[in-house]
Amino acid sequence: MPPASSSPEPEDVRIPRDVLPSDGRFGSGPSKVPQRAVDALAAAAPTYLGTSHRRPGVRSVVGRIREGLASLFALPDGYEVLLGVGGSTLFWDAASFGLIERRSQHLVFGEFSSKFAKVTAAAPHLDAPEIIESAPGTHPLPHASDVDVYAFTHNETSTGVMMDIARPHDADGLVVVDATSGAGALRVDPHDFDVYYFAPQKAFASEGGLWLALCSPRAVERIERVGGSGRFAPASLSLPIALENSRLEQTYNTPALATLFLLAEQMEWMLRNGGLEWAASRSDRSSETVYAWAEAHRYATPFVAKPDERSHVTATIDFAEPVDAAAIARALRVNGVVDVEPYRKLGRNQLRIATFPAIEPEDLVALTRCIDYVIEALGWS
Question: d(Cα 104, Cα 375) in Å, to the nearest integer?
């Protein structure tokens, strides 16, 4: 519903400077990239950017990433960190060639969890997947089945739903987790997964175009066995090739060097401050700020009904009439507070707010004040 005729247009609202956050980037992906990391990249640029990814200067950064992620996630002996060019979307294709032997089970509860299921359903060399689906704003539960891969999603970015990662009881298949927006900000026990894959443009405050996968010994064995079975896979989608190159601290084809560097900087910032528990606690604090504000609000409410399913990195907030969330987002944008629009396909009167570790918790407090200011300025208070 548009603002009352006597109220200003959203683009005319000016939020006082003392109300605004210190940084107005609240996007769910790509995320805010901290200036300290950009400054570090600029300082390293003369000897780093524009150099070969197969030479020591870049391979040392890849080595930092692999070693640092093993430490951040407390990976047990035998687990390996793989990486490749292309992002999580490409990893779905790679997994269809190199991880799934015959059939997979998929928990589908939003746009991104549905996409991996569509990949495996379309793969002519695989049996039709088992799909367990629930309505947006909820997540389904797995069950032991005749499958060799269980495909979970740690955080559904489109809807703001997170799920705990645990192996299904009496299940033998690999647990393969899409952790793209959760990795580095949500707690996880590596004993509960075989592959935990993600891209670095979310909690790791980098750029896109790269995938990383934390792989258990069982997953490594599967990659090597399927790769040696004679099944065709394009080289750029070959997990055995990715495994071989990762062990050499490099990628098969040329990566974006800035992406690698920014990822390493954010990861090491987390480690210096206390590791995954520290980063997860920081996102806990930020998300609770948003949810508590919404629960106490006259017009706002958390979209996800069950508190234990509400994401700690992607808060989705619905608004009741007469408030128009799209108008709020437009007003915020002209004031430098950006990317809080809802996921486009969800089609709700909603704001979607990232609470990644790189975002200052105090800025989430400021954001809620900005939203209240806009609501009042547009005549809805």
Answer: 46
Nearest of 203, 371, 344 to residue 290 by alpha carbon: 371
Strand pairing class (210-215; 300-302): unpaired
Q: Flag whether pLDDT at 1 surpasses 60.
A: no
- Cα 60 to chain centroid distance, Å, stands at 25
CB within 8 Å of 313: residues ≥ 6 apart: 28, 155, 162, 181, 182, 185, 186, 202, 203, 283, 287, 354, 355, 356
Residue 133 carries which side chain, given as an amino acid letter?
E
In sequence order, the 6+-apart residues with CB closer than 8 A to the CB of 163 are: 107, 109, 139, 152, 153, 154, 309
Q: Last residue of a domain, which of 243, 272, 301?
A: 272
Q: Which residues of 167-189 are buried (b: 16+ CB within 10 A; e: fewer)?
A: bbeeeebbbbbbbbbbbbbbbbe
Q: Cβ(242)–Cβ(95) under 8 Å?
A: no
| Cα gap 312→166, rounded to integer Å | 18
pLDDT of residue 7: 77
Report yes or no: 157 and 28 within 8 Å, Cβ to Cβ. yes
Assign residue 285 the CATH number of its domain. 3.90.1150.10
One domain, residues 94 and 166: yes
Question: Across the chain, what does the average pLDDT equal?
Answer: 96
Q: Is the dihedral of CA 195, 200, 203, 204 positive or negative?
A: positive
Of 272, 300, 330, which one is at a domain's C-terminal end? Answer: 272
Closest alpha carbon to 309 in 154, 143, 89, 172 = 154
What pTM, to 2 d.p., does this model score? 0.96
Query: Alpha-carbon dihedral of residues 200, 235, 245, 59, nearest 10 degrees?
Result: -60
| Residue 154: strand, helix, or coil | coil
- The verdict on 67 and 86 lying in the same domain is yes
- Per-residue pLDDT reduced to its tens digit, 54-74: 999 999 999 999 999 999 999
